[in-house]
Amino acid sequence: MSSEVKKAQQAQRQFDKPTIFDKIIAKQAPADIIYEDGICMAFNDIHPQAPIHFLIIPKKRIPMLEMATKSDSDILGKLLMVAKKLGKERAPNGFRLVINNGKHGCQSIYHLHIHVIGGRQLKWPPT
């Protein structure tokens, strides 16, 4: 079992405590921020899985994609548009978007985030 799978299996679904992403948004934790606006921010992953690997998070905490509501539609659309812009700039030959949801989806931080991965030929299917 990989360390990321172990983290996801052990992650607590505690929605009342700040996550590391909440601390990054509040500038209470360091991050290599590559984009920020009033709705979302993007920063490089501290454990990159490819030459290009960054995360995009909404500033409003949505714990999991399955918990997003219809009122979050504009935020979700904004995340995808930022992923398109930054992905195209940083990985012009192509990139992959990943959203982990729940334990079996390998989610270890309960603040919705999109992984943007590229910079090399990716394989399919992912394992």
Structure, described:
Helix content is 25%, strand content 20%. The chain contains three helices and five strands; from the N terminus they run H-H-E-E-E-H-E-E. The protein has helices at 3-10, 20-25, 73-90; strands at 33-36, 40-44, 52-58, 95-98, 114-118. A hairpin with a 7-residue loop joins strand 2 and strand 3. The protein is globular, with a radius of gyration of 14 Å. The model has no long low-confidence stretch (mean pLDDT 94).
Characteristics of this structure?
five-stranded antiparallel sheet, alpha+beta, 127 residues
- Sheet with most strands: 5 strands, antiparallel
Any low-confidence stretches, pLDDT <50, length ≥5? none
- Any idea what the radius of gyration is? 14 Å
Shape: globular
Helix and strand succession? HHEEEHEE
Terminal residue distance: 12 Å
Lateral strand order in the biggest sheet: 1-2-3-5-4
Mean pLDDT: 94
Give helix % range: 25-40%
Put simply, the count of helices is 3
Q: Report the structural category.
A: alpha+beta
Proportion of residues in extended strands: 15-25%
The number of strands is: 5
